[in-house]
Amino acid sequence: MKNKMKTVAALLLTALMALACASRPKAVSQWETPETKGLDSWNLSLYPEVAAGTHPFSLTGPAFGKAKLTGYAESDGSGGWVLSVDTLKWFSNWSNGWTDADFLVLGTLTLTPGETGWKLAATEIPVIESLREGSIRYKDKIVYGDNAVKMITNRWYRLEAAAEYLREKLPAAWYDYRYRKIKKGESFETAAREVLFPEVYGYPAGKTAAPRAPGNYVRGEYLSWDTLWTKENFPEHLREVRDAGTLFRDYEEMSPFLYLMYLWPTLWKEQAATLNFKEN
Amino acid sequence: MKFLPLALLLFLAGGLVFAQEIKVTVIDRDLDIPLEGVQIIVSGSAAKAVTGPDGNALVALPAGVTRPVMVAVLPGYETQKVTLQPGQKSVTVRMILAGVIEGKELVVERTSPGKNDEQSGISVSMDAEQMEGTAQIGLIEDVMASVRTLPGVTFAGGWNGEPSVRGGYPAEMATVLDGVYILNPYHWGGSYSIFNPMMVSTVKLSNGIFSAKYGRATSGLLEVTTMTPDAPVLRIDSGISTSSTDLFLQIPLGSVSGLLIGGKVTYLEPIMLIAREINPESANVSVPPYIRDLYAKWFIRPASGLEIYANAFLGTDGVGYDGVTDNDGISTHGKFDWEYLNTFVAGGIRYMPGDKFRIHVLGGYNLNIADAAWFMETSGTREYSQEFTDLYGLSGRYNIPDITDEGFNTTKVQQGQLKVEMDSLLSQNHVISWGVEEVLMSSDQEMEYDGWMERPDETTPGLLVYEPISIRRNTEGNRIIHSAAYLLWTIGTDQTAIRGELGVRGEHFYLWNNEEDYTLNTLPVATPRFNISWVPLRDRGVLDRLTISFGTGLFCQFPLESTAAEKKYGIDDFEVGPNQTLFGVLGAELLLDEGWKFQLEGYGKYSFNRLYVTNSDPAGSDAGWVVGTDGIGYTAGFDLMVQKKFGRKFDGYLTYSFVWSRYMNPTAAEFDGQMAMVPEWSPLDEWYYPSFHRFHNLNLILNFRPVDGLTITVKGALATGAPKASVGEITSYPVDMGGTTIERYGRTTSYSDSLRNDISIPVDVRISYASYFRGTKIRWEYYVGAEDVFTNLYAPRTNKSFDPYTGEYLENGDQADFSIGMPMISFGFKISY
């Protein structure tokens, strides 16, 4: 009897270890950017090969929050690596829930040794193609499967459109990923909120709310939205989702994603090249 | 080392990669035709293929790549990329003609107020989120605490979980859990229900004309639906508070099955230590009140339209007391032990062979065992009071020898049930449902009592004597089989202007007792029911919907007390039947934008054929029991509900219920003080308000959310007092006990139609703060709750109780609502994943 129990315990332990190993494999190579005050480092990790010369990789950085970009890395034959981007593993939470999503992302990056360190470049800019799977929790309810995919996809489209609009309103260079908060009281969040939802977070300096008059406000998501502000400031395709409060819900639940979408083009076109990775 | 091969297998399984062929089918997305000549490339490998005339191709996937990306290329079409999943055997690619721009449409999505099946004129319902502030507070977190705030429910006071719905006796409400009738779903004799907020998904109280699908109730139906563990990943809900720990796990078992398992353990020892400081008598609680509950639910959906599920519950509770109290020369040693087992298993199969027919077969078994043992020994020396001396001429001191009352009572009640329900969709707006059910119930009792009883002396008129009595009972009780069938026609849906239900239910009760060779047959009863709701206005500006509803129906219930029927009472076949109630409801409901709801319903009830039991023997022996079945009652009232279902900064609801409820047991009293024992010590031959009746009942529940994560819930109630007996002066009288005259105290008590206890105004407050651990799916919540926060400033009072040996009032003997003398404070921490 004792032996049987030992066997069961050992099996359980082995299974747990196998599970742990499967969920978090140990990196075989790692590169990191030097620590900057108040900012997370970028980290690129290669994991044990799954096929001859092919290693899974993951890329994390301050722009991604708790998300990471993953794919497969192969040697470029001259000491560097070609990274085929495959997935954006997204996770973010807020006070009433969370969003977990696996986006299909296709693109190619390279990591090459240079004189001052390893350089990351996008030879084929990663593009978010579709959402593979996801789940959303809002208060006590968790949505899985097709419903979750539909909800997150719709949210992705809306936040991407809002990010595109913000790139016009707020110059990307100013809100550098390295300086999420460039000076006290000013950050991407503050600026974006003022533009997108002044009714909730306050109007930008010098701007005022529309007078309370019929037609000037509509209710959506239990809040009143200034339709004059919408007409004056928003492109046609974003007006309805803003006035319905839908965009505000998106922002509440997935605001880091808005930031990532806002940065996405410049991240690969300009900023990636400025990173200096050191191999650990 | 036998496990080594298996361990190795586990390791290998973790690193399995696929080297296999996958069938690719490519079609034109718009024309839905197969596409030939599509070049299939697997990214990062040399694997390639071209589709044939049927649009199919077989592609050999490279070994070692866990999630390859497959690219489909055909001139004139947009190139498509698909990521393949491990183990995938086939994939269909839908290609779009080049030039067709696929826009990312920005869809407006609004928060849905949540679908529930509450219906104007029939029911109100709450989901787990709506119950959070009212159910998750206090000594025991209890769904019934939320139910008690709903319209039509009379305020019951503290330590009482059994609701009276629209003037009916609490026992006249039936409770079903996932469709199965549950026998006595309470702990601690009715103080709290067994429904843990962590296991309940929704609760629906039908205070109106509920469906003919359900019987066994004349005043309300409570339908509790538990969580279905259908999440594809593990979910955990847990909580630890000052008085209990709760843990529930939802475990996926493959993609079509799941298990919910969890329970509650209480520990009131710390609270008892504090209570001891306030009331030293609390130190005599030898076993602090406890509850141990375990619940499990399993389901599987093995095929489309088929679901099999099972529930099991095992609950125990108990309390113990062992203490000596000295009061003015009288010493009383009291012991009491209470243990209760409440368990059930239930299960069912739902099957929809097509989209027009559904069959649901369900059954269950319920076992309740209540075990009470008690011992009380009173002794001491006292001096006759001056008043007693003046009246009876006795003076000096007298001894009270050991007066011992002791005994035990074990009651075992079992219930088995089987139901078959069928629904047939005739057309989009017409459903015919029919079904049958059998419920078998039995009750057995073993009881011993040795004590003393006060009774008139047979030789000296006017003298009372204290005599020992001994009662032994070990009986196999009665068995009752309740057979029922129903037929229903449902018209319309939530979206149609007219919606209603016309149904009839046939019921029959048969009672027998093998030990006594006794049977009692009853006439079958038909209970037709009808309700209709009309939506004259829908989607007009801020108005979502106006609904007018009307319903009427007949309901019947064979009261639990019927299990006590015996041959010696001489009740013949067809002499008695179930209690019946004719019920009518008229209501209006207005739903506005932003989750506002206004509901007003008026109702009237006529109760007849009501069972009552009285005792024609003034000495109280059970030989004098008389059964009456001509009890009647009238109830009328109205309920108002104003609700803001959801809001960012605040939501909540207000309910107000006015109830007028009178009953009568028509048998004339044969002696002073004769009352009916069933229902619950009610007067004879006069109209009376039942003991739980309160004219006005107001509940206000407000949830404030001043900042993200912080919720302040205020739950206030205001209820006018319940009936209070008319009592006379406390006077002393002599009782002879083996030659010694003992001075005893008593007072006359009679029903009063006008006296009432004080108004009850309990206010509970709960403050919680919740959020998620950074970067995780783990939600945490702290809360602090205070029940009856103003109890030290105001507490409702009733007649004072007194000591029968000293005549002195007992401390806190005039509480109309249970209170520990201070607000009940609770702290808790919850984690969910």
Number of strands of chain B: 46
> What is the string of SSEs of chain A from the N terminus onward?
HEEEEEEEEHHHEEHHHE
Query: In this structure, how is the largest beta sheet of chain B organized?
Result: 22 strands, antiparallel, barrel
Structural class of chain A: alpha+beta
**Poorly predicted runs of chain B:** 1-18
Morphology of chain A: elongated
pLDDT below 50 for ≥5 consecutive residues: which ranges of chain A? 1-22
Strand content of chain B: over 45%
Largest sheet of chain A: 9 strands, antiparallel
* Average pLDDT figure of chain A: 83
Give the helix proportion of chain B (percent range): under 10%
Shape of chain B: elongated
Number of helices, where a helix is a run of at least 4 consecutive DSSP H or I residues of chain B: 5
The assembly state of the depicted protein chains is heterodimer
Describe the structure.
The complex is a heterodimer of chains A (280) and B (833). In chain A, helix 2 packs across helix 7. Chain A has 7 helices and 11 strands. With 280 residues, chain A is an alpha+beta fold. In chain A, 36% of the residues lie in helices and 31% in strands. In chain A, strand 2 (43-46) and strand 3 (54-60) form a beta hairpin. Chain A has a 9-stranded antiparallel beta sheet. Chain A has a two-stranded antiparallel sheet with strand order 9-10. Chain A starts with a helix and ends with a strand. Chain B is mainly beta and 833 residues long. Chain B contains 5 helices and 46 strands. In chain B, the strands form 7 sheets. Chain B has a 22-stranded antiparallel barrel. Chain B has a 5-stranded mixed beta sheet with strand order 8-15-16-11-12. In chain B, a hairpin with a 2-residue loop joins strand 17 and strand 18. Chain B is elongated and about 120 Å long. The two termini of chain B are 37 Å apart. Mean pLDDT of chain B is 88; it is low at 1-18.
